[in-house]
Each structure stands twice: as structure tokens, then as C-alpha cells.
Structure prediction request, 161 residues.
Amino acid sequence: MKEFFTGMSIYGLAELVKSNSLVCQPLFVNGNFKEQLAPDANYLFTLMDPQYSPAGSSRRQIEENMMDHFQDCLNLFEDTKMGGHTAAVAWNYKDDNLDCGIEVETETFENPDLTVAGVMGWLTGQRHKSIDNQKFNVTVHFNHDCLKHNPKHKVCFPVVR
Prediction:
């Protein structure tokens, strides 16, 4: 993008685009491009690649019920504006603006984005469909033994990668 901007600057187009951004926008951005990339519940669910237990097992039934519940949640997020509880997010970070390099502990709050795009961002790191139309999968693993690994857990959480 920097090279593109530099090339535009050579011909004086960069200033023209900056000063008349709304007029020049159709030259660079398709008007309905954003809508074309917005995921819906069915698109996101088709990306799921569940690694089920053998057919007929009790674990398989639990796994299929979990996937059905997840699909129902996605459809609900698509049809209804949902809100989640505000949760504190705390971490230590190094503030580059401070000369002494002291780590500052801050506390911020966030609301979960309970939309299909928000869930897709949480799962994949991108909140939109693939721009180059390459299909990718989200592998779903079911952790039936989380209490063995972490006996103090009250609830087993999903594994996200």
C-alpha cells in the first residue's frame, strides 16, 4: 500500500484522493463490497469441521447436540441483537510513552461481540468472509477429559486455536 500511495503521490493523485475522498471512493471500493463479505450464520456453520467420536457412541450424541446448539446460537445472533455481560480485562503492558519503561497495570472493560461476525472473529481472527474466495475450515475438537486435566474446573471451556 505504501508503494501504491507513493506512486499516486508522484502524479499528484494522493492529494486529490485525500481532499475528495467521497468522490474518489467508487474508484477504489465496490459499493456493496462490505455487504458481500459479511458472514451469515449458515456460512460460518459450513466452515465447521467437527471431529466426532465414533457413530453410535454416547460421546457422539453429546457432540452432535453441542453442534446443534452452536448452530441455534448463530441463528439467534443473526436474528436478534444480543448483548453480553461487561467483563474486566486486565493485563500488564509496557507503555512506550513512558521513558522509564515501567510496566503499568490497567483494567479495561469489554462487551463480547455477540454477532455472527464477532463469533467468526473470535474463532478465526477475521470478521469477514475470505476476500479471495478460498474456503477454509474451523476444526472443532471436543474435550471430554477436561476435568481429568484440570480437576478444579467447574465448567469445561472450548479449545480455541
The chain is about 45% helix and 15% strand. The radius of gyration is 22 Å.
